[in-house]
Amino acid sequence: MAFGIVWLACKEGHAVAVPLDRGKPSVIPTGLGSHTFAVTDDALWVTNCEVGTISRIDPRIQEVTTIQEVGSGIGITAGGGYVWSSGSKGIAKIDPQTGRVVDHLSVAPGVYFKLVWDDGVIWASTRGSEVLKLHATSRGDGQAGDVRLLDRLRLP
Q1: Is 62 left (phi over 0), alpha (psi -120 to 50) or beta?
Q2: Domain 5-154 belongs in CATH node 2.130.10.10
Q3: What is the pLDDT of residues 6-58, one digit of tens each?
Q4: N or C: which end of the chain has fewer CB within 10 A?
Q5: Rounded-to-integer distance, Cα 19 and Cα 28, Å
């Protein structure tokens, strides 16, 4: 729930917005494979894992902007003034004001299902039953930044 709306992702390529004030639900086109949401002060961000994009939804007017170059990941989070999304190139760092990918953080190959921002740390769950605690070091020059592994938790 965000902006007084319950949001649902539908893998067929849309998000459903259900207003809590019992207003009429609306269907908002995204990309195929809509999966996971992140929220910033003025937008809702959804991963579209089948087409390798992210949709930025302005909740006031339900306008959608498509962000390219993020890969086919499903993990997404917001924090530290950026949106972070997992993908084939690692973790994309996205400027929420411009919608541009400003950096990619090098992460070990794999699928990252969930990303969570926690005061400078990104927690990432993997397909291999691990949870990684990552400190992101972004170069900020468009080249891949480094990620320092702070901890690795193996799940049973």
Answers
A1: left
A2: yes
A3: 999 888 999 999 999 888 999 999 999 888 899 999 999 999 989 989 999 99
A4: C
A5: 13
Mind listing the pLDDT tens digit for each residue in 123-146?
888 777 788 888 765 555 555 455
Q: What tens digit of pLDDT does each residue of 60-84 get? A: 898 999 998 787 778 899 998 899 9
Alpha-carbon gap, residue 53 to 66, rounded angstroms: 7
Task: Kindly state the tokens that stand for 29.
Answer: 């086109």
What is the strand order of the sheet 53-58 is part of? 34-39, 44-48, 53-58, 63-67
Both tokens assigned to 129: 């039953």
* Paired residues of 150 in beta bridges: none
Residue 36 token pair? 């996971």
For the chain, domain boundaries: 5-154
Residues 64, 46: contact at Cβ < 8 Å? no
Alpha carbons 131 and 142: distance in angstroms, whole number: 27
First-to-final CA distance of the chain: 31
Angstrom distance (rounded) from CA 32 to CA 150: 34
